Amino acid sequence: MDRTTQLTARHAHHRGRTGPPRTPASPPVAEPGEIGSGRDGFTHVGAVVADVYDPAAMAGSLHGRAARVLEDNWTGMSTVPSRGLYPHQWSWDSAFIAIGLRHLSPLRAQTELETLLDAQWGDGRVPHIVFNPSVPLDAYFPSPDFWRSSTAGRAAGAPRTVQTSGIVQPPVHALAAWLVHRADPGLSRARDFLPRLYPRLAAWHRYLLHRRDLGGGGLASVVHPWEQGMDNSPCWDAPLARVTPAPARSFRRADLHHGAPEDRPTDLDYGRYVRLATDYRDRDYADGYGDFAVEDPAFNALLIASEHALARIAKELGATGTARHARAERLTAALVDRLWDPAEGMFFCRDVRGGGLIPERGVSGLIPLLLPTLPRDLTDALLRTAGGPHFGLGGAARLVPSYDLTGEAFDPHRYWRGPAWFNTAWLIERGLRLHGERERADALREAFLSTAATSGFAEYVDPYTGEGCGAGDFSWTAALTLDLLHQPPGHGVTPEGTGPFDMRDVEGMDDVNGVNDVDGMDGMDGKRDTRDMRDKRGDRG
């Protein structure tokens, strides 16, 4: 029995020991009358696929291939995005990875998030990289000796026992934690998974809402393009133009050893990234002083979605969750007020330092489709924009491009300047399904799965052809493939309210009193949780 088969078999056995088998929110569906093993690795019985792994069927299936990627990229405590290009733990990667990994091993998915949050800073920020000390310094740049987190980050409460970066990434973590909990509530409760994570997640959100409200309008700002996750998007070109690049001789790019230069950010862009990071480090990671500050629609939409998830976590822990839902509603209103352009029918980034919206159409402007209470007229406008000439959803583009297909800066192969990415496709698919666009969601799901399969789980792809670019066997591509395989075509939001994004999120919001959801749990109160998670983790699968 190979390692992937052992992993999936152990999960099935574990569920049998800890309680009744978990019933998926939306079990995969076969053709009527079909019996046998499907390409997803589940046993098909009639029109329903049983929630039982079939190792023999998995071996060559898309499900089995995706599981193999996650197994190969597992380090023992977390999952690297790819073995060569990204040899450490990345923040929002781990959140997406946990969302898919929960279908194979809820325990390992919990460990993924716990390991990341073990490196949280005292001020609440979750660093975008947690460095593996066994990886050589020259394997990735910027390396730990560049960030100097334990010294430059001391005033902000950087951990002393692990090296990290000093910037952040989009806050998908509360959403991931809720979905991981729902994958095996019995295991989660036995391990106190949510009670241990809730104060850390609350502190993370509090950091963003207070320390990063640099525009004063209620939204979080990013202070570096790497924080938003879409590193070299044309949306950053105007604010980056104010930044004097670091000299090329002052850094060495390790990324060019693993990818074609024409697929990566330019040296000029990289010099500006290094300058911003250097200046931030040399200010001891104090917020509010840099030349780059941007309010981004995707970053804030994910914060809102995670606020709704925190409300559910609070309810699981015995509170009402109404204060969190109310906060998410206030953020949604601020998002519309500050970033929506009715004439263009989409959201745009706001340059906090330069003032005004940045007139570049990026996929970030479509991500607010995730939001359950987005006004219907805005949803309709976003759908028209997504399906129009700029993004080609359901038409010219195989997957949603990262940037305007008609834009002057469009490049189908250069990182975030045009290629399609699987995490943004997954987010848009979830948004389409949330708002009742099942046919469009089904088509995007099918395109996602077929492109993931043919590209070898590529990091990103040409939006027209699906040709793979960047790293292969990319972890979040594999993880989100697993998640979509477990959610069959035709389904909508789940009646149990356990789907990723659900209109049930807004139930009970009339009773909003503005108090903390859980007494004593609305953050860490400046203290790190010193309980030793390792004593409770047991076998990691």
TrEMBL record:
UniProt KW Hydrolase keyword:
yes
- The answer to whether UniProt assigns keyword Hydrolase to this entry is yes
Domain (Mannosylglycerate hydrolase MGH1-like glycoside hydrolase): give its ranges.
Answer: 86-477
Record's keyword terms, sorted: Glycosidase, Hydrolase
Q: Matching Pfam families, A to Z?
A: MGH1-like_GH
- Which GO MF terms are attached to this record? hydrolase activity, acting on glycosyl bonds
Q: Where is the composition biased (Basic and acidic residues)?
A: 524-541
* Biased composition annotated in UniProt, kind: Pro residues: 21-30
Q: What name goes with this protein?
A: Trehalase family glycosidase
Native source species: Streptomyces bluensis
